[in-house]
Amino acid sequence: MMAQFAETLSTRHPSGLLNGLLARFTERLERRRVYNRTYAELANLSTRELTDLGISRSMISRLAHEAAYGK
Predict the structure, then answer these.
(1) Residue 9 sits in which domain range?
(2) Which residues does 42 contact at the CB level (< 8 Å), separation at least 6?
(3) Which of 22, 56, 58, 69 shows the smallest number of beta carbons within 10 Å?
(4) Quick count: other Cβ atoms within 10 Å of Cβ 38?
(5) What is the pLDDT along the chain (71 residues), one digit of tens a residue?
(6) How many domains does the chain have?
(7) Within 13 Å, how many C-alpha atoms sit on residue 16's CB side?
(8) How many alpha carbons fall within 13 Å on the CB side of residue 43?
(9) How far is residue 70's CA from residue 13's CA, in Å, rounded to a whole number?
(10) Alpha carbon distance 19, 4 (integer Å)
């Protein structure tokens, strides 16, 4: 009961709301960084290297998305 009260209080209090927004923003920013990094690394591979990994160029965007956001 006390934990629920504290949780309710923190989400209604402006600093709790701000912390929640900041946490979500930070998470989204980090996921986007993972996407960009994965995409760039795969895109920089030669076609031969991608083929050796079983990846076609058309798969790069999907694979980067999965790396960052899951399936």
Answers:
(1) 2-69
(2) 50, 55, 60, 63, 64
(3) 58
(4) 18
(5) 556 655 555 556 677 888 999 999 999 999 999 999 999 999 999 999 999 999 999 999 999 999 999 98
(6) 1
(7) 8
(8) 9
(9) 32
(10) 18
